[in-house]
Design a protein that fits this description.
This protein has 591 residues and is α+β, with helices and mostly antiparallel strands. It has 3 domains: 16-193, no CATH class; 199-235 and 434-556, Rossmann fold; 238-430, no CATH class. The protein is 31% helix and 23% strand. The strands form 9 sheets. The chain has a 9-stranded mixed beta sheet with strand order 1-2-3-5-4-8-9-20-21, with helices on both faces. β2 and β3 form a beta hairpin. α6 (161-186) packs across α7 (208-219) and α16 (462-476) packs across α17. It starts with a helix and ends in a 14-residue tail after the last helix. The structure holds 2-acetamido-2-deoxy-beta-D-glucopyranose (12 copies) and calcium ion. One 2-acetamido-2-deoxy-beta-D-glucopyranose binds next to loops.
């Protein structure tokens, strides 16, 4: 809903038109300088400025935004760092002065890209709310088609540390700091000493963009009033290795269930758990109760049957449309679920464990699927593990520093994954790990954090988001109870599970589940009008209920539909504890 724009028009001071401002001369004349509080070591290349008008630019069918048609001036320029031979390109979409609403929205990336996440719609979405929006190429240069994993090494054995820190948090923070100063100048809001108009500043992103969001709350709190983080691929050392956990767990157990077993179990789980939330609608809104009440052992001896088809390795990215999928043919299958099938599935449902049985990383929720699992090997005519090459690259490139893009999983065990997780956490603690739990500077300056995660995400486990929320609660409110600490935290950092949603995407398997599309408006209202998002909107984007707006409860409350069909947000100790996992395999705390 874009209703807030009208209310904000009042604040606009100048009567300039977009076309009068959208020239390279004007843009060059208002580039920020060090007196605008941009980092002193940064030099903007004034000859690099571009400015182009886009009119009636429309975005339709974006998961994260309503359909929109906007006008804006696309500005870009490059800068470099003192004594560096680097070149970072930033781009800003400036709304027309008559709709500019004193807002700046910074946006990020997905998978291994630093920008253009959310299917490229965040830049436009911000403009629709009267925000100047920004993104950066991080110096890679992404605009030329380069992803971060292409530049993480300078060569075998040598990491590209400046690029790693840029990717970790620095490039986004610089883009925001420069972008805020540029926006103030562009719209003549006044200098940092004479200004009277508050420029509200936000960040939004999902997946890698969600990690970038959290990184900004941790590392650049002064730059933002409100941050929206979706399904953050944070706890990077663990998360990146976890992409290969399911196949390695299966290999460690030494038994390879046919793919039809996984498909059959997922369908049965969704059917069995649908009604536990009080409403039979094909959506499991209480995967916590599902975990507690649905015992996969009950499927022992059930028959399964699947037609010939194909399975895809998942790779990184959003929902089912992930990066670099590899596809294998699967034969027609039929059979009976046996005890070994059940044992593998129960192992996956309880997370990655080391050989002592201690928990190393979080499982996916029972309705999510299990990430990559098994494929048919037509040479040996047997089932084997998927080798999700693009995910193993983390180990070869980021841990072993070898310019090799695929990892041989032969002989790899759960204990190897644990060792790699600890190695990655240690190596990148200060750059990519993104788990600093003390957000006091962000809280103290009045920052607000809206964090959400799809409950049926099979790429980044939602209980990992809850674990971070819990870490912040325990570090910041150590003497308060779970209840009291969450009450304090909810004043400024709220977390929402999105029933049925996949990774930053809607979910084919639960088409009646909504996905939150009004997050920026909720955040604007929270920051600018102090309207606390007790529940947030989640819009159904497929199936028979398309267009329906559902409500999401703030964690630790969970939805339940009463006999008269009303949704209540209820809290139950056992269902909360079903989503709190204790990472007992580490000697150090893992936040
Ligand atoms: C943009 O759309 C409006 C309304 O449909 C139309 O009047 C205008 O001519 C369009 N402008 C351009 C540049 O296409
Ligand atoms: C951003 O993503 C959109 C949609 O995928 C694409 O059309 C556009 O070219 C991308 N822009 C950049 C700068 O990569
Ligand atoms: C890594 O290998 C690819 C080809 O496989 C090559 O294009 C690239 O330049 C190499 N990168 C480095 C840093 O050596
Ligand atoms: C880097 O190491 C990989 C694997 O060890 C090797 O295949 C490749 O040739 C090496 N590249 C260079 C430029 O030495
Ligand atoms: C105005 O200046 C203050 C103090 O320097 C700063 O915090 C604020 O962000 C500035 N606002 C704008 C609109 O530039
Ligand atoms: C699972 O359910 C989907 C429909 O949601 C169906 O297309 C698929 O064939 C089912 N798979 C199995 C193995 O039952
Ligand atoms: C699941 O059922 C099996 C077989 O009845 C039983 O042994 C096991 O304890 C049950 N697990 C849970 C978590 O209830
Ligand atoms: C099950 O599969 C076997 C061999 O793959 C085949 O011979 C048999 O006809 C199938 N049965 C059914 C009921 O599909
Ligand atoms: C939430 O959805 C309702 C119903 O569509 C709408 O009236 C309201 O404006 C939305 N709230 C926000 C913050 O977008
Ligand atoms: C539905 O039931 C809930 C409690 O179960 C009650 O609080 C609510 O008022 C009822 N709503 C209607 C419309 O009857
Ligand atoms: C969960 O808690 C609510 C109160 O928050 C209570 O009404 C309900 O009966 C509880 N449900 C279960 C399954 O314990
Ligand atoms: C987590 O495990 C540690 C070590 O075993 C234990 O001290 C702690 O009480 C556990 N916490 C929870 C919440 O279970
Ligand atoms: Ca349901």
């Amino acid at each position: 809903m874009y209703s807030v724009i009208a209310a904000a028009l009042v604040g606009v001071a100048t009567a300039s038109s977009l076309s009068s401002l959208c020239t390279t001369d004007y843009v060059t004349s208002v580039l920020p300088t060090s007196s605008d509080d941009i980092p002193s070591g940064i030099t903007i290349d004034t000859s690099s400025v571009t400015a182009s008008i886009y009119r009636n630019y429309s975005v339709t069918g974006a998961t994260f935004w309503e359909d929109m048609t906007i006008n804006f001036c696309e500005v870009s320029f490059a800068y470099n760092h003192q004594n560096g031979d680097d070149r970072v390109v930033v781009q800003y979409w400036m709304p027309s002065p008559d709709v500019f609403a004193n807002r700046f929205l910074a946006t990020g990336g997905a998978a291994y890209t630093i920008n253009n996440g959310s299917g490229g719609a965040d830049m436009a979405g911000g403009v629709a709310y009267g925000a100047a929006t920004g993104y950066t190429d991080g110096g890679f240069p992404y605009w030329g088609g380069t992803d971060f994993d292409d530049v993480v090494l300078l060569g075998n054995g040598t990491a590209n540390w400046p690029a790693i820190y840029n990717w970790g948090y620095q490039a986004i923070a610089e883009m925001t700091q420069i972008g805020k100063a540029f926006t103030s100048n562009f719209f003549s809001l006044g200098t940092s000493t004479t200004n009277t108009t508050k420029l509200y500043s936000y960040f939004m992103g999902c997946s890698e963009g969600g990690r970038e969001a959290i990184s900004q709350a941790q590392r650049a709190p002064e730059l933002y009033d409100g941050i929206v983080a979706g399904a953050p691929a944070m706890r990077y050392g663990q998360q990146q290795v976890n992409h290969i956990a399911s196949p390695v767990q299966i290999q460690t157990m030494g038994y390879y269930p046919p793919s039809c077993v996984f498909d059959t179990v997922i369908n049965a789980t969704i059917n069995a758990c649908d009604g536990l939330d009080g409403k039979v609608d094909g959506v499991v809104a209480r995967s916590d109760l599902c975990f507690l009440n649905f015992n996969v052992s009950s499927m022992l001896g059930q028959t399964y049957s699947c037609a010939a088809g194909s399975t895809s390795s998942l790779g990184l990215g959003y929902g089912k449309k992930r990066k670099r999928q590899s596809t294998s043919a699967t034969p027609a299958q039929n059979g009976t679920i046996n005890a070994q099938d059940i044992a593998v599935i129960q192992d996956l449902l309880t997370g990655l464990k080391d050989s002592n049985g201690d928990l190393v990383y979080f499982p996916f929720q029972p309705t999510a699927g299990f990430g990559d699992t098994t494929v048919w090997d037509s040479t040996t005519e047997s089932w084997t593990i998927t080798n999700p090459n693009s995910n193993g690259e983390w180990v070869t490139k980021f841990l072993h520093w070898q310019n090799v893009s695929s990892l041989d999983l032969t002989g790899v065990t759960n204990d190897d994954l644990k060792a790699w997780m600890i190695e990655g956490m240690t190596l990148y603690m200060d750059s990519l790990q993104t788990t600093l739990p003390d957000l006091t500077p962000f809280y103290s300056k009045g920052g607000r954090l809206l964090h959400y995660h799809g409950e049926a995400d099979s790429s980044v486990p939602p209980t990992g988001s809850i674990h971070y929320h819990e870490s912040v609660r325990k570090i910041m409110y150590p003497s308060l109870s779970f209840e009291e600490g969450n009450t304090q935290l909810n004043e400024w950092y709220r977390f929402y599970l999105v029933p049925g949603a996949a990774h930053c995407a809607i979910n084919d398997e639960q088409p009646n589940a909504g996905f939150p599309r009004d997050n920026f408006e909720h955040m604007i209202q929270w920051v600018e009008e102090d309207v606390v998002p007790i529940t947030i909107n989640s819009t159904v984007q497929s199936g028979a209920l398309e267009g329906e707006v559902q409500k999401l409860c703030t964690w630790p409350a969970r939805p339940y539909w009463t006999d008269n069909g009303t949704m209540v947000c209820e809290e139950n100790a056992s269902s909360v504890s079903a989503m709190l996992w204790n990472l007992t395999a580490y000697k150090m705390p893992v936040y």
